[in-house]
Amino acid sequence: MEKPQFDDIFMELAVNLAKRSHCIKRHVGAVLTKETRIISIGYNGPPAGTHNCDEEFPGKGCGLDSKGSCMLAIHAEQNAIMYAVKNNASVENSTLYVTLSPCLSCARIIFSMGIKKVIYLNSYAEYKGLDRDEGLDFLEKFGVEVEKYRGNLENVTHMI
């Protein structure tokens, strides 16, 4: 049996974490790593201690803010980064695996925290119907390595 590449392992974990999301609109997962070790994980959803959107607002989800985004959602990347920092783990020079490329807001946080590389599965721009991925453009402009995942996810059967 051929051993899986770490990129495949980490992206598959991100896909499986996305399945934990309580968001009605989109499930996103993230894995933050250094070399071959996992620092932190995250998925999108409301802040801990509030409520789960799929339970509180079944079928429609939480309300939208003035920009059309979920009012309660913390993005998967934000959750992974915040959990790492809350637990005194350094995220500097780490790699972030995420199932949806970072939005511009998340890209600013990723850059500011010193994350060196982002590997993403799907395009945020395509999901939102935008002309370009502003978050990826920002990261590339300021020296963060960005890579579309092109590996092999053998065990993934369905992703929302």
From TrEMBL:
<dbReference type="GO" id="GO:0004132">
    <property type="term" value="F:dCMP deaminase activity"/>
</dbReference>
<feature type="domain" description="CMP/dCMP-type deaminase">
    <location>
        <begin position="5"/>
        <end position="145"/>
    </location>
</feature>
<dbReference type="InterPro" id="IPR015517">
    <property type="entry name" value="dCMP_deaminase-rel"/>
</dbReference>
<dbReference type="InterPro" id="IPR035105">
    <property type="entry name" value="Deoxycytidylate_deaminase_dom"/>
</dbReference>
<feature type="binding site">
    <location>
        <position position="103"/>
    </location>
    <ligand>
        <name>Zn(2+)</name>
    </ligand>
</feature>
<feature type="binding site">
    <location>
        <position position="106"/>
    </location>
    <ligand>
        <name>Zn(2+)</name>
    </ligand>
</feature>
<protein>
    <submittedName>
        <fullName>CMP/dCMP deaminase zinc-binding protein</fullName>
    </submittedName>
</protein>
<feature type="binding site">
    <location>
        <position position="75"/>
    </location>
    <ligand>
        <name>Zn(2+)</name>
    </ligand>
</feature>
<dbReference type="InterPro" id="IPR016193">
    <property type="entry name" value="Cytidine_deaminase-like"/>
</dbReference>
<feature type="active site" description="Proton donor">
    <location>
        <position position="77"/>
    </location>
</feature>
<dbReference type="InterPro" id="IPR016473">
    <property type="entry name" value="dCMP_deaminase"/>
</dbReference>
<dbReference type="GO" id="GO:0008270">
    <property type="term" value="F:zinc ion binding"/>
</dbReference>
<dbReference type="InterPro" id="IPR002125">
    <property type="entry name" value="CMP_dCMP_dom"/>
</dbReference>
<dbReference type="GO" id="GO:0006220">
    <property type="term" value="P:pyrimidine nucleotide metabolic process"/>
</dbReference>
<keyword id="KW-0862">Zinc</keyword>
<keyword id="KW-0378">Hydrolase</keyword>
<comment type="similarity">
    <text>Belongs to the cytidine and deoxycytidylate deaminase family.</text>
</comment>
<dbReference type="GO" id="GO:0005737">
    <property type="term" value="C:cytoplasm"/>
</dbReference>
<dbReference type="InterPro" id="IPR016192">
    <property type="entry name" value="APOBEC/CMP_deaminase_Zn-bd"/>
</dbReference>
<keyword id="KW-0479">Metal-binding</keyword>
<dbReference type="Pfam" id="PF00383">
    <property type="entry name" value="dCMP_cyt_deam_1"/>
</dbReference>
